[in-house]
Amino acid sequence: MSRADKARAFADLHRKGDPVVLFNIWDAGSAKAVADAGAKALATGSWSVAGAQGYGDGEALPLDLLETIVKRIAATVDLPVSVDFEGAYATGPTGVGKNIARMIAAGAVGVNFEDQKVGGSGLYPVAEQAARIRAARDAAEDAGLPFFINARTDLFLKDREPANHPALIGEALARARAYNEAGASGIFMPGLKTPELIERVAGEISLPLNILIMPGVPEPNELAALGVARISYGPGPWREMMAWVTEQAGKVYGV
Is 8 exposed, middle or buried (0-12, 13-18, 19+ CB in 10 A)? Predict the structure, then answer.
């Protein structure tokens, strides 16, 4: 498929009630393994990619190295590839646009793009994040690619207590609408766990909703029934793989 065909195919996989499931990868080898297992699309996890190279999360992985990793993944598999791009390694819209263009050139057909201030505190104000999303969309249009911008809000990761989440839904919905108007293709709400709230968000927004698998989150089949359009496994697969490697090495060394 051409890059544009891959981008369109990736977008078409996002269907409410019939979600695309992304078992997140971290390098070309894991990309091939997940592709061989039957995945229809691939997505990296920022924590996983950084950890596999010995870095911490939060844009500690050098952008040049991330670009190289994305190129290797895209060259290894013939599937759509989305990149967990954190805050796009930039604060202002100009930098965001330039760095999104780099991911497009590397072979990505989509990104996760979060609204928390990486390396800082809190979230970008809605209008400021919307301007950043518009810059990402402009970069995609300049490249002539129907690029999938999965706009992530970190509201529910900043406050992980589900009992507090009903009070955050109003802001989450407002951010989703603003991001949609700015050019987002989907909305990612990691940390949202309560079935009733997931169903409400999926029903009230036009963007496909992405939910992260983590403790306390409904099973994938239930998420589908709630109207979710994308399910991500985040750093879970990498963590489990590293735990297995540590366990096996411990047996060798008698630990």
Answer: middle
